[in-house]
Amino acid sequence: MSNSSKERPHILVIPWPASGHMLPFIDLTHQLAIRGITITFMVTPKNQFYLNPLVSLHDPTTIKTLVLPFPSHPSLPAGVENMQDVTQELAFQMVSALSELYDPVLQWFNSHPSPPVAILTDPMLSTWTHPLASTLGIKSIGFLTCNHYVAAGVLDNYQAMKKEFFFGEMLHNTMDNWALVINSFTELHDKSFHVFKGFTGHDRVWGVAPLATVKAGAERGGPTSIPSDEVIKWLDLCQVDKSVVYVGFGSEITLNKQQMEALGDALEKSGVRFIWAVKKPSNYGSGDKSVVPNGFEDRVAGRGIVIRGWVPQSRILKHRAVGSYLTHCGWGSVLEGLVGGVLLLTWPMQAEQMTNKKLVVDELGAAIPVCEGLDAIPDSEKLAQILKESLHQNRPERIAWMEVSERASNAANQGGSSYKALDELATQISNLN
């Protein structure tokens, strides 16, 4: 195919505004771009910085941006454009606000000299995009950033959920997509892919994980208390491989005062080297969250570091010095831990995280449960012992996890199932042109 932008098929990408969704969409967009697809990526102004690494890697005729003002909503604080700034309870309000972009996107499409042939979107949350694609007469491609094990579990409850308006709409839009892309790989849970194909009635269901992280000179995330290169230099100085515990709970979880104290006490008592990622508290929540215990950093100086704000998590987890990872079990974080080959210590908090924990702990026997629940407070003595023992190289959970990691690597490499799925997806989109 010629590299001429006029001959390349064009798609519109509309992600759900949360880091755990935006970043996989960006990584998938990059893979499609290098396979000959032209992309317009829609964002609101405060989320545009996420695209900097992606845009810096591609010609402006290949990756374009559509920046639309975030619609106001009476239940959302002014200035909020990302789920990391609010709680899960406001997700439906976020859906409602974003649906007001229907008409602006419609107007953009109708005035475009070479409009897209498909919309790539999150079918379970961006429910307004499926009817938009139908109105425009183009294909809708759903990208599920959760794993297929979770999504197939949702399908098991299809009859009950479809009776509720929003969930029914969500499931209909998911199943009625022209194609489904899932942030997982067939070797992890092959039966779930067959479930999807049965529900959709077609074979355009692809697992594409683990997606390679977009790497560029531009920083991938937002403001941080410690620059990424300094974090990596600190890890480089660690003389023993797999000797550092990384602690991070994603972009939407903030721990309360009691949880922070219990975790800080455990890290202090454990004696392990560590990196603790502390999310900056939202301006719209309680003021007692994400508060590092008084004097903690002085007491652990040299042995551990605390990073406030954005953390180069993917780079940290791939570093030879990191051996285990205390995680909230968000699927993007689980995949990054899988790629990095670090043992997971699970503390699921909300949403699909409980099911992710069930997969890696109960189904695969490849992770260590630590705690569970958004308000749960771990026993610091027990947690300290788990942190220390998690670095032992002969743990059966670590051995099992490394086997899964190898399967994931094989899937992503050239000739693997996910690599071939990306090729097939790009080919099918090209045929729409």
Automatic annotation (TrEMBL):
UniProt keywords, alphabetically: Glycosyltransferase, Transferase
CDD domains: GT1_Gtf-like
Transferase among keywords: yes
Domain of life: Eukaryota
Record Pfam families: UDPGT
PANTHER family referenced in this protein's UniProt entry, alphabetically: FLAVONOL 7-O-RHAMNOSYLTRANSFERASE (PTHR48047:SF5), GLYCOSYLTRANSFERASE (PTHR48047)
Family statement: Belongs to the UDP-glycosyltransferase family.
Protein name in the entry: Uncharacterized protein
Native source organism of the sequence: Xanthoceras sorbifolium
Lineage: Eukaryota, Viridiplantae, Streptophyta, Embryophyta, Tracheophyta
